[in-house]
Amino acid sequence: MKILQCLSTALMLTIATAICAQPSINTNKKNGGYAFTISKMIDCTPVKNQFKSGTCWVFSTNSFIESEIMRLGNGKIDLSEMYVVRNMYIQKAEHYVRYQGNTNFGSGGEPHDVINAVRQYGLIPFSVYSGMPEGQVKPVHSEMDAVLKAMLDAMIKLPDGKLNPNWKSAFIGALDGYLGTPPANFNFQGKNYTPQSFAQAMGINPDDYVEITSFAHHPFYSQFILEIPDNWANQAEYNVPLQDLKRIVDNAVNNNYSVDWACDVSEHGFSFKNGVAIVPEKNFDDMTQGEKDSMFSKPNPEKAINQANRQEAFDNLSTTDDHGMQIVGYANDQTGKPYYLVKNSWGTDRNDLDGYLYCSVPYFLYKTTAILVNKNAIPKDIANKLGIKM
Questions:
Q1: What is the pLDDT of residues 204-228, one digit of tens each?
Q2: What is the secondary structure of 317-359 as a DSSP string?
Q3: For a surface tag, which of 134, 232, 234, 278 has the fewest beta carbons within 10 Å of its beta carbon?
Q4: How confident is residue 20, by pLDDT bands cut at 50, 70 and 90?
Q5: Which residues contact 288 (CB under 8 A, 6 or more apart)?
Q6: Which long-range contacts (CB under 8 A, 24 or more apart) does 22-26 make?
Q7: Is 242:312 a contact under the CB 8 Å cutoff?
Q8: DSSP for 69-100, written as a single string
């Protein structure tokens, strides 16, 4: 997801392990014109804050994994986001060096990066490894990102005629200077673990999770490498028609599986402050100033989204990969229109919904780049078409 869209400026919550509560008000904001009734709420951990870091992909996916751990009956665990960030930065650096700088290197990533990190490196609780210097309670990565990229750019210029064999040690030294060195083993709640054994104890099997998208420029019911900058790992995703993408999400939520949601939040219809993401029926540029000012005042008709206009938005680059969040439930507004209840990672004080928002179905259909789900949450007929073994 793009760095700028992933940045937030709210203060970080004290991390807790209690089950998250639903938003404390049932309107989109205090005295707002939307009135929501939540019909489904999946267990999840409290809203966190990625603060000044482009790590939404980790916060959303860790939150998704935390819900999975709870669903499996293995307790309420606060996982370390920076453990994933640290390990993936090393892989990104290797990739960047091998491509001699002709690829993306930055703080962004995709949900599959976290699953790949779990497979290779395991998981660590936040209380064991925060990835932040003493006295710092929120991630601040601008300097670190600039320094790490500058190091790599200097290295690949080959000032000594060839790449120094110690380049990776130097890079890791700088990385750990900012984030700290994670432990090879640790004690948690009276038991000793390695990161790998901890992931296993939590019941997390990376092979249970698949990433799915819906774009017409590749065959459906096949896999392709989604062409977005933050897919630096060039990992393939399953491709399904748009109606199947919605069926997968609905089936997941109905069966108590949350959904890791990668999407575009750069649209005028996305307003975290107002607590809603919508697709107004009228194009923003065609609205009067009064219509723009009242866009979030009450439910209004939305644009019908289909495979064609979704594809057009991706092809003309108005749909970009900006942000990652977690879908944790369903709600309906006062007109009966359905919404997905979404947990964000921008803290709790940037809107009146304690860090949540309501996403309309048209917005989801229009601006989703990909989802990550437990494969057992996929309807069997779709899984069979994709060749996914349950």
A1: 999 999 999 999 999 999 999 999 9
A2: TSS---EEEEEEEEEE-TT--EEEEEE-SB-SSSSTTTTEEEE
A3: 134
A4: low
A5: none
A6: 22/329, 22/341, 22/356, 23/275, 23/353, 23/354, 23/356, 24/353, 24/354, 25/352, 25/353
A7: no
A8: HHHTTS----B-HHHHHHHHHHHHHHHHHHTT
Tens of pLDDT, residues 176-208: 999 999 999 999 999 999 999 999 999 999 999
pLDDT of residue 18: 39
Q: For position 10, what pLDDT does the model report?
A: 34
Question: Which domains, from first to last, does the chain contain?
Answer: 3-386 (3.90.70.10)
Which of 307, 295, 243, 245 lies closest to 270, judged by CA?
Answer: 295
Q: Where are the beta strands (DSSP E) in the chain?
A: 37-41, 186-188, 191-193, 209-213, 222-225, 236-239, 259-263, 270-271, 276-277, 323-332, 338-343, 356-360, 368-374
Distance (Å, whole) CA 190 – CA 264: 42
Taking the model in full, what pTM does it have?
A: 0.94
| Tokens read off for 310 | 């979704």
Determine the length of the chain. 390
**What is the model's pLDDT at position 52?**
94
**212/56 Cα distance (integer angstroms):** 18
User: According to the model, what pLDDT value does residue 1 have?
Assistant: 52
Residue position matching structure tokens 């069966």: 255
